[in-house]
Amino acid sequence: MSKLAACLLFIIVSLVLPAAAPAGENITRLSDGKQVAMRQVVAQAEKADLVLVGEVHDNKAHHALQLEVLRAMKKEGIPIAIGIEAMQSDSQGNLDAFIAGKMSEERFKQVFAQNWSYDWGLYRDIFVFAKENGIPMIALNLPKELVVKVSRRGYAALTDEEKKSLPQGTMCDLNNPHTEFLKKSFGEVFKHVTNGRVFEYFCEAQTLRNSGMATNIRAYLKKAPKTKVVAFTGIWHAVKNAIPEQLSRNGSPLASLVIMPEINEFKGGEASPEVIDYLVSFTSP
Q1: For the packed helices 120-133 and 92-99, what is the interaxial angle rounded to 10 degrees?
Q2: Per CATH, which fold does 26-266+275-282 belong to?
Q3: What angle do helix axes 120-133 and 105-115 make, rounded to 10 degrees?
Q4: Hey, where are the domains in the chain?
Q5: pLDDT in tens, 63-73
């Protein structure tokens, strides 16, 4: 089983940047296939409400790209807030305390470990950058126990009380483009490891998380309409038919920009402007 498939199954259960992209990194604009510099990406980001930068959670280069985008936007004086999948919405108070300097890093590491199974060291530079620069952070993810329950037993298994704990407006309607995208991309993988019903539960869990994170983003932008939210999530939440599409289904659409590190599924012309705006590939030194 590939690393990507394993990650999907797990879901079931320097302040100044150079003008051009750094060595070893190539940025392709999907709309016309042209190579561009980070400053051109940032110019488009300034026009958006939401900038999504995808990640494979344990890939250091992907997190370095996320930090690069943050630094570039900060350098241009763009007002930003950072939305992050690695933190659950019920931990927002702890996240606020850390950013405000009211919680030590050692204590916050414990909070982070309760929220996310991946190593703190992969994300530390992003959190510290936010803290040092007074950049608000938004805990985007839904409470873990609800996501796990849906992934194992389906959305119908949630009680009315549990549904009330979701961000207001969160939906789990599988009649959406992302469900078809998941079927096309991963249906064959799941046939070898589970049955169709559990794959449906996986789609429900993904849709629930996309909808919940979209709702949290919209709620923040309603409070701070002049701010750009820069959201760091897994690849399959960041594509246009995931969180951005959920935003359009739950209220008026927001202008979004999707920046994606290259993975095997996006190589050889498989990435399209319907799914991604900018594709970033990393070359060996």
Answers
A1: 60
A2: Rossmann fold (3.40.50)
A3: 130
A4: 26-266+275-282
A5: 999 999 999 99
Answer yes or no: are the C-beta atoms of 230 and 249 closer than 8 Å.
Answer: no
Token couple for 39: 């400053």
Burial of 170 (0-12, 13-18, 19+ CB in 10 A): buried
Q: By C-alpha distance, which of 139, 149, 151 is closest to 212?
A: 139
- For residue 174, name the pLDDT band (cuts at 50, 70, 90): confident
- For 138, the token pair is 């938004």
pTM for this model (two decimals): 0.87
> Tokens representing 200?
């449906």
CA distance 262 to 54: 10
User: Mind listing the pLDDT tens digit for each residue in 4-23?
Assistant: 444 444 443 332 333 344 44
CA distance 242 to 252: 15
- H or E element, residue 198: helix 196-223
